[in-house]
Amino acid sequence: MKKSIRVLSTLLALLLLVSALSCFASATNNQTFTTAPQLYTYVRDGYNWGVQGPITITRGTLKVGASSKAVYLVTLSGTEIALNQSTEVVTDLLSGFNLESAYYRNVVKTIKNNVPRNANLILAGHSLGGMIAQQVAANGDIKSGYNVLNTVCFGSPLLSAGSREGTVRRLGDVSDPVPYLSGSLFNNTLWAIMGLNRENGGYGILGIHAHNLSYARADVWGRYDVTGTKYGNAKLILDLDSRVFYQSPIIDW
């Protein structure tokens, strides 16, 4: 009898240990983002010289106060010269004047092929990626098939991309010239300036450093939450195991 009790106790202990390890493993696969710099660092993983691709999609949960929503985070990196990747200067020019590009079409296609219809979307991009994100937020198929909650742009010009769904936040260091390099300046100069959330990272004339380094700094942008809202309290809990990278070829079939 005592032997049986010892065996049962051992089995119970093993089951509890396995359960604890399982919970621990599950927890380590999730990551909570609370600030814009954390989101920017995640976006920058798309700069991988075309090895994985500039587009990522990750399942997650957006929490704002007592509200909680299942979401898909779509991240888009910016200009990068990579073999057969549509993140080159031509795409910059097309996007700057709100024209279609292979990158834009690839993002729309990737979302439609890999995200369930009627799902909530958060779009986030750096530089060119932020321009593409604004275009996607205004795309008719995306607006009719999905719910775009937020678009967060780091160092990205304004696009007059029609009626963009959801809330759009553009973050721009005062020394970063890129947010003003848009064809939209010719028809909406005031909003291109006033619609930009600006902070000073102390880069002075070093615009390229401001463009690439400022947005990762918690001391400059840490007061902005993951939706790009200053003094906001939104949290984004991502399932890192669900993250998938996608290519964006120059020729989109």
Helices and strands, with pairings:
Elements: H1 2-28, E1 30-33, H2 36-43, E2 55-64, E3 67-76, H3 89-96, H4 102-114, E4 120-126, H5 128-137, H6 140-145, E5 147-154, E6 167-173, H7 189-194, E7 196-199, H8 207-213, H9 218-221, E8 235-239, E9 244-246
Parallel strand pairs: 3-4, 4-5, 5-6, 6-7
Antiparallel strand pairs: 1-8, 2-3, 2-8, 2-9
Helix pairs in contact: 3-5, 4-5
Structure write-up:
There is one protein chain. With 253 residues, this protein is α/β, with parallel strands linked by helices. It has 2 domains: 1-30; 34-246, no CATH class. 35% of the residues lie in helices and 23% in strands. The chain has helices spanning 2-28, 36-43, 89-96, 102-114, 128-137, 140-145, 189-194, 207-213, 218-221; strands at residues 30-33, 55-64, 67-76, 120-126, 147-154, 167-173, 196-199, 235-239, 244-246. Strands 1, 2, 3, 4, 5, 6, 7, 8 and 9 form a 9-stranded mixed sheet that branches. Helix 3 (89-96) crosses helix 5 (128-137) and helix 4 (102-114) packs across helix 5 (128-137). The chain is globular. The model is unreliable at 20-26 (pLDDT under 50).
How would you describe this structure in keywords?
253 residues; 9 helices; single chain; alpha/beta
> By helix and strand content, what is the structural category?
alpha/beta
- Quote the average pLDDT: 88
Low-pLDDT stretches are 20-26
* Overall number of structural domains: 2
Work out the strand percent. 15-25%
Following the backbone from N to C, one meets helices and strands in this order, namely HEHEEHHEHHEEHEHHEE
Radius of gyration: 21 Å
Distance between the termini: 71 Å
Indicate the overall shape: globular
Helix % is 25-40%
Number of helices: 9
Largest sheet: 9 strands, mixed
Count every beta strand, where a strand is a DSSP E run of 2 or more residues.
Answer: 9
